[in-house]
Design goal:
It is a single chain. This protein is an alpha/beta fold and about 325 residues long. It has 2 domains: about 5-115 and about 300-325, Medium-chain alcohol dehydrogenases, catalytic domain (Quinone Oxidoreductase, Chain A, domain 1), CATH 3.90.180.10; about 130-270, Rossmann fold (3-Layer(aba) Sandwich). Helices cover about 30% and strands about 30% of the residues. The protein has 9 helices and 15 strands. The strands form 3 sheets. Strands 3, 4, 5, 6, 7, 14 and 15 form a 7-stranded mixed sheet that branches. It has a 6-stranded parallel sheet with strand order 10-9-8-11-12-13, with helices on both faces. The protein starts with a strand and ends with a strand. Bound molecules: NADPH dihydro-nicotinamide-adenine-dinucleotide phosphate.
Length: about 325
């Protein structure tokens, strides 16, 4: 007899894509050498696109969405994991081509799993999720560039969102002076509470960028792309760097070579999905040590498993502040 479990499932027909909360059993689990009882999941921008079908994120049907989960191993033939281990999963195509975290159970490759680091519980791990882990990958890229606290202001765009809010909290705890941009100036107090020294209206970054602007930022973390990123690049100080991780405004980048060849700036592309496991483990250890859990509680909120479809619409409409944590029933 196989155990039944609840899962969201996205199917496809001639009428398009449909998402439903349904009952599956163990025979529906996908291939893998570790089975996990999912304890918590979360909602990322990409999950919003997947659940609504707004972008072709899901590329295999039927499939359970959810690019992140934390949970407890209940069956493993992988050398690194045994029953009872607490694990985190981010990306690796999960929630895109392999069934993911919007379910009570998931079976995945053990090569994709990160052990829950000391200092974090499973709930906090999903308050961080892919968004927060991407924020840390971005912080690490700026550090590898040589940017240190005291070198100058770091700009974070889309600061009220998932990546942005964790980036602000982490950078400020590390001792950087952080300037946040947001389209929601009513969230100013929230961002100052996370550690932003100043908050700017994202409208200031919306117009076509000049090739070179005033030199303001020693580094930047950008989730927006488009004119916002072009303006950020033109305002980087000599030798500065931007970690590029998102396209909340646009996939395009209408810039010139001027800030690169006249100010020696650099851009670092950030990919969370296929990042090697060794780098992930470092990022998660750093999150456990360098992110203030009280601030993480401030920037996260509980979302009901049943409310994921509505929240998917909300995240795409830019209505979600910080990070949603979903306790899987
Ligand atoms: P959220 O929706 O939580 O946050 C995005 C934020 O971007 C919004 O809250 C808003 O912040 C800002 N924003 C929205 N629309 C615009 C716009 N038109 N112009 C400028 N800013 C805008 O998403 P996440 O933080 O989870 O993800 C952010 C981006 O990063 C997404 O594009 C996502 O796909 C990408 N991403 C990439 C990853 C990678 O591996 N490279 C991993 C994770 C995410 P505010 O209201 O404060 O202005």
């Amino acid at each position: 007899m196989t155990d039944q479990f609840q899962a969201y499932q996205i199917g496809k027909s001639d009428d398009g894509q449909r998402c439903a909360l349904t009952q599956l059993d163990d025979s529906d689990l996908m291939e893998g050498d570790v089975t996990v009882r999912v304890e918590y999941t979360t909602l990322n921008y990409k999950d919003g696109l997947a659940l609504t079908g707004r972008s072709p994120i899901i590329r295999k049907f039927p499939l359970t969405p959810g690019i992140d989960f934390s949970g407890t191993v209940i069956d493993s033939s992988h050398a690194d994991f045994k029953d009872g281990d607490q694990v985190i999963l981010n990306g690796f195509g999960v929630g895109e081509v392999h069934s993911g975290g919007f379910a009570q159970k998931a079976r995945v490759s053990g090569d994709w799993l990160v052990p829950l680091p000391d200092g974090l519980d499973m709930r906090h791990a999903m308050a961080i999720g892919t968004a927060g882990y991407t924020a840390m990958l971005s912080v690490m890229a700026l550090e590898q560039h040589g940017i240190k606290p005291g070198d100058g202001d770091i700009l974070v765009t889309g600061a009220s969102g998932g990546v942005g809010s964790v980036a602000v909290a982490t950078l400020s705890k590390l001792g950087h002076r952080v300037v946040a941009t947001t389209g929601r100036m009513n969230e100013r107090d929230f961002l100052v509470g996370l550690g932003a020294a100043d908050v700017l209206d994202r409208a200031d970054f919306a117009d076509k960028a000049r090739p070179l602007g005033k030199e303001l930022w020693s580094g930047a973390i950008d989730v927006a792309g488009g004119n916002t990123l072009a303006n950020v690049l033109s305002q980087l100080r000599y030798g500065g760097a931007a970690a590029i991780c998102g396209l909340a405004e646009s996939m395009n980048l209408p810039t010139t070579v001027a800030p690169f060849i006249l100010r020696g700036i650099s851009m670092y592309g950030i990919d969370s999905v296929m990042a090697p496991i060794a780098k992930r483990k470092i990022a998660w250890q750093r999150l456990a040590s360098d992110l203030d859990l009280a601030l993480l509680d401030e920037l996260s909120f509980d979302l009901d498993f049943a409310d994921l479809p509505q929240a998917a619409e909300d995240i795409l409409a830019g209505k979600i502040r910080g990070r949603a944590v979903v306790k899987v029933p």
